[in-house]
Amino acid sequence: MVYKELEDAKEVFHAKCRHCYTCIKSCQVEDPKPVEAALNIIFDKPANVDSLWRCVNCHTCSYACPENLDPRSLVYLARRRFPPPPRLQVFINNILSVGAVMELNPEIEEIREACGAIKLKPAKDVVEALR
Predict the structure, then answer these.
(1) 122, 104 in Cβ contact below 8 A?
(2) CA nearest 62: which of 79, 74, 52?
(3) Buried b / exposed e across 38-54, counting CB within 10 Å, b at 16+?
(4) Is residue 70 classed exposed, middle or buried when 0-12, 13-18 and 19+ CB atoms within 10 A define those classes?
(5) pLDDT in tens, the chain (131 residues)
(6) How far apart are CA 1 and CA 62, in angstroms?
(7) Nearest to 62 by CA among 118, 107, 23
(8) Alpha-carbon distance 7 to 66, whole Å?
(9) Are 46 and 99 in contact (CB under 8 A)?
């Protein structure tokens, strides 16, 4: 089930969630778990909102839910409310400016050139698509 807004999801989770924490237990991300933060937000508990940005979108939490709820959607919707932590914003800015998580390293380019590898270029098509 895909929820349009966090309030819609909150209503469904309040009605159907068993609080069995199978979704949290199934999450492969190290603590603090992103899905735990999202659940805490909708159940009005303190949450580590930075952990929302650690989710790798594997959907394991949603597959594991015995009530067929979609905890992954909660993470996605909660991210809309909370900005990424500053350390992540650096990567986002790089993606928007050069089309990659990190800027191209001139030393690596020299090594690649010496080995006869093709020259890497900023992914301008990615940058344009993101704007």
Answers:
(1) yes
(2) 74
(3) bbbbbeeeebebbbbbb
(4) buried
(5) 667 788 888 999 999 999 999 999 999 998 999 999 999 999 999 999 999 999 999 999 999 999 999 999 999 999 999 988 888 888 888 777 776 777 677 888 888 889 998 877 666 666 666 66
(6) 10
(7) 23
(8) 21
(9) no
Tell me the pTM.
Answer: 0.68
**Would you list the domain boundaries of the chain?**
6-81, 86-130
2: exposed, middle or buried (C-beta count within 10 Å: 0-12, 13-18, 19+)? exposed
State how far the Cα of 48 lies from the Cα of 60, in Å rounded to an integer. 20
CB neighbour burial string for 4-30, b if at least 16 within 10 angstroms, e if fewer: eebeebbebbeeebeeeebbbebbebe
DSSP H helices in the chain? 6-16, 22-26, 34-42, 60-64, 71-81, 86-98, 106-114, 124-130
Q: What angle do CA 10, 11, 14 make, to 5 degrees?
A: 80
